[in-house]
User: What shape does this take?
Amino acid sequence: MKLLLSIALTLLRAKLRQSIVAAVGVMFSITMFVTLLGFMNGLNDLLDGLILNRTPHVRLYNELQASPTQPIAYAYRMQPTTSGVDTHHFVRSVKPKDELPRLRNANAIMDALSRDPRVLAVSPRLVAQVFFNVGTVDLNGQVSGVDVMQEIRYYKFADYLVQGDPHDLATGNNTVVLGKGLADMMEAGIGEVVQVTTATGERTMLRVVGIFQSGIADVDKVQCFANIKTVQKLLSRPGSYYTDINVKLHDLLQAPAMAKEFSVRFGVDAVDIQTANAQFETGSSVRNIISYAVGIVLLIVAGFGIYNILNMMIYEKLDAIAILKATGFSGSDVRRIFLLLSMVIGLLGGVSGLLGGFALQNVIDIIPFNTSALPTIKTYPIDYDPKYYIIAVTFALLTTWIAGWFPARKASEVDPVEIIRGK
Amino acid sequence: MSDQRTIGTRGGSSSVGPQTSAGVLKEDPSQTSAGSLKEDPAASPSRNILEVRGVSKSFHDPVTIPVLKEVSLDVKRGEFVSITGKSGCGKSTLLYILSTMDTDYEGAVAIDGEPTRGLSGERLARIRNEKIGFVFQFHYLLTEFSVIKNVMLPGLKLGKYSAQEVEHRAMERLRELGMHDQALKKANQLSGGQKQRVAIARALINDPLIIMGDEPTGNLDSHNSAIVFDMFKKIASEHEQSLLVVTHDNDFAARTDRIIEMDDGKVMT
Assistant: This one.
């Protein structure tokens, strides 16, 4: 094999210019493949992150619902119908109960969840509808009481703060982080105090410690965050009063099944991230398919280049092939020589393509990219996942192997007698 | 050498083998050679390196034309044989059948007692590598490689010696042929006569049992022709290697041990 490789390399060196052209073809396509996938996936992650970072994998809550069983049903269940015909009730007298949107026994549920090995993090929330009083105008708002440290750790809360320090929210009492749109409307900056009225009419003063921007304008116009204790106090509720429990899982894909399980187990409503945000998966996979398709097309084009150059080389080297065969190299030796030749081109092109791709990714990574929707993003996003490099080099070798195989087989079938006698 | 005996015995005893090869070996007129194989092949100078029995070949394009008709011949160890004849008489065709490169024929060929019919391409390549050396009319060196590498390649392929040893042996062969000072040149920087000498060195690298030449002097002037002939002569006597040379150069042929004259696909003498 070493001998065959040295023969292949010598042949390659003799046709250095053509070999370099072939290798550059591979290099170019691998560069584009890696860059394209890195860029596409960087964008995918960014766009998905807009929602996914901030969304729990499973959300447990209590929804206001009509009573599923009306009293009249109980009456009929007692008396089996003699005719065997099912009955239908038109009397629906019981209206939804005037019930607090709280989760019953929330502390016990949280306890059980945090012991579940599939669960990464459990954080409670308390959502309150409020009005912000600005002069004579009341602005609609929604204050989410959160466990600030959990939010920072698992939901990248700090990434979305354009001003202020999230830790002030954790430590301070009666503090609030306003959405950017809301803060602009109230012309409220850090350190200022805003007045809040709850749905039940109670008024509280809250100090602004940060400005928050999610990238979704409608959300930023109403969404505010506060310490969960602050919101409990705002609503005059006890310390175990939560409206939501957000669960982050180790494996995102288990979310739908686990949402169902939690719903049954704890007797609450549960929604999973896939159901809540189905469109993101679709967008990502379509973008992925496009970038793979473009990359593979580029590689196929490079493969044709290698095929052509090897074919030409074989026609020029018929004498050499004949003499190798006459002096004891078998057909499969000859085939291996040309396959090795092709693979060397593929490997050189592939590896330099990876370096080129990495360089190009770095260039894209420093191009400024400013958008008001994404406060923390300053340059174009790139995903440097080594997975794409491995896929690229695998494809490069596969393409060159296939492109080399046909000419190599032709070379192995050269009849030396015909060549030697033909002179 | 002991390995040659086993091959020889196998060849001789395969009387139930396919085609006519077994029959050939039976009707071999020199039964003594078969007998001597069993005793000690190396000791017997009259042992046949090459046995050819009833080889026929036709070209079928576009009409069937027979080129070889029932050719039978033997080449003994250390014998210098030339094949002559008019062009088109089939002498080159015969040589390529004997060289194992052409497998499309009828009849039987045994090299060193081993019938070559039905062997795999791999095995035939091995036989060519190990037992046959080639010298062609048009030198056929690999122009991408240096002179020494050209000589070394069949030796490296054989893998019997380490790369250093092969290089040393190649250098020796080149020295014998007066080409050692050109060893590092590229093959295409040499003159015709020099190239042919390198080709002979290459043919010798694996100590083959037989060296086959297809018009090895056909492309050379009389001076270089004489050099090449002398080298062949020396090889045959010194290393006890057989030589089978196709030529239309009657002077060349006249100086060999035996002339096989061919006409119209048949052996005349």
